[in-house]
């Protein structure tokens, strides 16, 4: 089964979409912003997985340099 993730700009619009989905007999699940971030992180990890090990110090230093700019 396929899923669609919708992010409304207002609670009113979100409620309208939920109501429409229910009338169309579509299952609705409301997720928190935190859960959405977790899903995005898991997806990014799965998509970028190479199967190769990375030196942890080198990785941490690259993160530090990314944020020092």
Descriptive overview:
The chain has 69 residues and is mainly α. It has one domain. Helix content is 61%, strand content 0%. It contains three helices and no strands. The chain has helices at residues 11-23, 33-48, 56-68. The model has no long low-confidence stretch (mean pLDDT 87).
Kindly summarize this structure in a few lines:
The protein has 3 helices and no strands. It has helices at 11-23, 33-48, 56-68.
What are the main properties of this structure?
69 residues, mainly alpha, elongated
Tell me the layout of helices and strands.
Layout: H1 11-23, H2 33-48, H3 56-68
The tally of domains stands at: 1
The overall strand count is 0
Q: Any idea what the radius of gyration is?
A: 19 Å
Q: What characterizes the major β-sheet?
A: none
User: Unreliable runs, pLDDT <50, ≥5 residues?
Assistant: none
Shape: elongated
Helix content: 55-70%
């Amino acid at each position: 089964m396929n899923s669609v993730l919708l992010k409304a700009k207002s609670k009113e619009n979100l409620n309208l979409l939920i109501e429409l989905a229910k009338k169309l007999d579509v299952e609705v699940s409301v997720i928190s912003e935190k859960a959405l971030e977790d899903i995005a992180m898991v997806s990014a990890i799965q998509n970028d997985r190479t199967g190769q090990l990375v030196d942890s110090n080198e990785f941490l230093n690259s993160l530090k340099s990314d944020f020092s700019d």
